[in-house]
Design brief:
By secondary structure, this protein is of the alpha/beta class. The chain contains 7 helices and 6 strands. The chain has a single domain, classed as Cytidine Deaminase, domain 2, CATH 3.40.140. Helix 1 runs parallel beside helix 7 (about 175-185). It is globular. The structure holds zinc ion. InterPro entries: APOBEC/CMP_deaminase_Zn-bd (IPR016192), CMP_dCMP_dom (IPR002125), Cytidine_deaminase-like (IPR016193).
Amino acid sequence: MMSGEYTIIDNQKVSGSVPFVPDPVHATVEFAASSDKDHKYLSQAVEEAYIGVECGDGGPFGAVIVHKNEIVVSCHNMVFKYKDPTAHAEIVAIREACKKLNEIKLSECEIYASCEPCPMCFGAIHLSRLKRLVYGAKAEAAVAIGFNSCIANGVKGTELCHKSNLEIVKLDASIAEQVFQNTKEKFSL
Ligand SMILES: [Zn+2]
């Protein structure tokens, strides 16, 4: 897998003022090794997005939390079902993973989100101490089919991404972008 499929949006460490600069050789090896895994779990998050819409549970968003290469929880947006505007896929996944692991910190876990997290979810990802975020679609793809434009500033529009040691990876996955066009006729905002 080509390392060029990845864009590292933020990889700075909390304690250091020196930005992390990956060694090109080692970075390639690292990302090549993780690439199949990342695509697998992101595909699962995308699958959840479709399931959530088919069930009528919520909008087309999925999230998967992984611990030591095993899926802890696989969730989707539950806003319609719960009548809860905060029941985004990432929030549901964090709540369920904490319950399942009996922890309030998920510092050994990674979260895979079908779409770039909104500000609320991005905040929750930080509060739960998740160590890594991998996402597929840009939030703009959701905004394009009618979702609130405020969701587009989750990662880029906050200081959080410069203050934490969260590794954020935007995976180049067209399947994640396609979710919105493929489901937009199946729910109403
Ligand atoms: Zn959200």
